[in-house]
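Bench notes, afternoon.
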Amino acid sequence: MATPLVRLPQRSLQIFGEPNQSPYNKSEYGSIVCSLKSVGTAKQTVKAYKDILNGKIGAAAERGVKKATKYLLNKTLEVTPVDTGNLRESGQTYFIGTGFKTKGIVYFDESIAPYAIFVHEDLTKYHEPPTMAKFLQRTQWKERANLTRIIEEECAKGV
C-alpha cells in the first residue's frame, strides 16, 4: 500500500515572510486532500485526511520549519562577514507557534554584535568572498527551494 506524499501549497511555506493565517483552516480541508499525491484509493485518502485532522502532519510541518530554519542559519553563517567572530557567534534561531502555525526566525543578537544591522545593510563595504553584505537576505532567497524541500520531506514523513 503506497504512502501518500504531501506537497504543501506554496503559500503555506511563507515561514520567513509576513505572518499569515494557516492555510489549513476548516474551509480549506478540501484543498489539502486534493494536494495529496499518489493516493490510490478512497481508504488512503480517508487515512491521510484523518492524519491531518489528528495533527500528525502539523507536527511534521513544525519539525520541518525548525529543520529548515536551522539549515538557513548554517548557510547564512557560511557567508557572514568575519572580523572578530562575534557576528557569526550571534546568529540565532527562534520559533513561534506550533504545528502549521510555526514560524521560524533567523536573527543576529544585538547584545553580542550590536553592529550586525550595519554590516548587513552597508553595500559600500568590501567583504572577502564568499562573505557579503545582505548575508541573511541573499541566503534566504538563494536557499528558498531547499527550505521548501526540507519542509515537504518532513511533512511526507508525517503521513
